[in-house]
Structure formats: structure tokens, C-alpha cells
Amino acid sequence: MAKQSKTDEISMEEYFNAGLADGSVEPNNPFEVVEQPAKHSGKRVKLKKEGGGKKRTFIGKRIIVLAVAAALLLAILGTMLLIMKRKNDGARYARKLSESIGMPLVNAKKNAGIETDTQSRFATLNQLYASFQAIAESRKTCRIQGVKLPEWAIFCNTSADELTNVTYYNYEVLEKNVFGTVRKSYQDPHLVSIGSTVEQVEDQLDLVPYRIQYLQGQTQRREYRYCYIDRETDDIVAYVITAIWDESGLLSNIEDSRKNYIGSLLASPDL
């Protein structure tokens, strides 16, 4: 019988003994597959993004479109509000009309860009002011002590069809308080310097004019109404400040007067 030839195969006992022989805690496993680290070629590998970039670009464009649309909407609203405010700016129309004093009323209206009527839409104004030849008034209304009035009205007087004076009333000033703008204390008009401009006077008084009258020679008279609570009597005290500017646009006179509106309402002619 022929002898069995040796092969390269190792028995489990030899494998175990070989592992202990080199001092390892565990024998080396000749059957273990050791993973080698991958070799880098030195070239960067670009990862392809599937749809991410396109999505962000779309969102960015959409945000820009929405921002532009919002800006346009705000601009349109702002323009509309400005136009509405200008159309309801009675003081501006009165000033424009006053620049044509001495000219035919037809030309004055054309220069100011405003139309007038011969009577007011409100019976109260027709009863109070009977001597005007033309009137322009706000389409917006307010209420003063329950009486419905336009927010403002412009009265024009003429002579031989030529504009002689323009008077503007701001009724809205009296809507919150019929006595005028509420202040904390007495406003001394003599603290205002003679020779001041309209802007300087109104900045110092911090009052909006209730009445503006433009006369021939580019002179004007402004009336301011205000009230305050008297600390001693705890009653409302009302004052009217009247200021006059000359043809140079400088203050020539200013004074005030105390008004007893309550006394006029309570007084009886039969007493």
C-alpha cells in the first residue's frame, strides 16, 4: 500500500500550536481575510446632487418674484393714498386759489385745479355764510356736536367776477373738541417773535389753523383755537389766537382772546 503524501494543508492542532508559539493571546488566523485600505488616485470625486440645486434655484427665484410683487403693490398703494390725500387737501387748494387773487374766478379755478359751486351741500353752511360767491368743499365729512359738515370748505368772494379773497375753514379740527385743540395750559402768543414765518409760528404754537383767510396784496390771517382745563376752577377755558402776515410772508401781529362759548349757549335773551 503506497504511503499517503504530505500536502500544504494544516491541521487544527498545528494551527493552534503555531499561534501560541509566537506569544499571541490568540492564534493567528490564516483564513482571516484582512481588508486593505483603498488606494486613492489623487483625483477628487464629485458627488452628483440629484435635484437639490434646481430646487433651491426655483425657491430663490420665487422669493425674488414675490418680493418684487410686494414692492410694486406697496408703491401702488402709496401712490393712491398720496393722490387721495392731495385731493382732500383743502389748505393746498386754498393757497393755490389765493395765488390768483385779482384774476377772474374762472382762471383762478383753472390754475388751482378745483371746481366750485354757488351753494354748499350743507344747509348749516349756507345759513352761517351768506355772502360768498363760490364754494369748494371736501367730499369727506365730519360731525361737530352732532352736526354733519364737510371736513373743510373754501369760500371765495369776488368783485366784478374777479377773485378778491379766499377763506379756508378746517372743520375737522373741531371734531374731537368743539373748543379746539386740547392743550395742558395757556399758550402765550407774545412769546412768538414778530417777523416769523408761518412755519416758525405754527411750530412754536404746535397748533393747526382752524381758519385761513387770504386777502389782496398777498396778506393772510390765520386763526387757531385751543382749550385747556383751568387748575383752579377745573373748568374748560377756550382761546382763539389770531395771527397776521404781511405781503413779505412775515408775522406782523399776533394776539389772543378768551372765548366764553358756554356762556353764549346758556344765556337767555329774556333774562
Helix/strand order? HHHHHEEEEEEHEEEEH
Instruction: Classify the helix fraction into a percent range.
Output: 25-40%
Distance between the termini: 164 Å
**Structural shape:** extended
Give the number of helices: 7
Stretches where pLDDT is under 50 for at least 5 consecutive residues are 82-87
| Secondary structure: number of strands | 10
What report would you give on this structure?
By secondary structure, this protein is α+β, with helices and mostly antiparallel strands. Among the domains are: 82-175, no CATH class; 177-266, Beta-lactamase Inhibitory Protein, Chain:B, domain 1 (2-Layer Sandwich), CATH 3.30.1450. It contains 7 helices and 10 strands. Helix 3 (90-98) packs across helix 4. The radius of gyration is 46 Å and the shape is extended. The relative contact order is 0.08. Mean pLDDT is 83; it is low at 82-87.
What are the SSEs and their pairings?
Blueprint: H1 12-21, H2 52-87, H3 90-98, H4 105-112, H5 123-128, E1 134-137, E2 141-144, E3 147-150, E4 152-159, E5 162-170, E6 181-182, H6 198-205, E7 211-214, E8 220-229, E9 236-245, E10 251-259, H7 261-266
Parallel strand pairs: 6-8
Antiparallel strand pairs: 1-4, 2-3, 4-5, 5-7, 7-8, 8-9, 9-10
Helix pairs in contact: 3-4
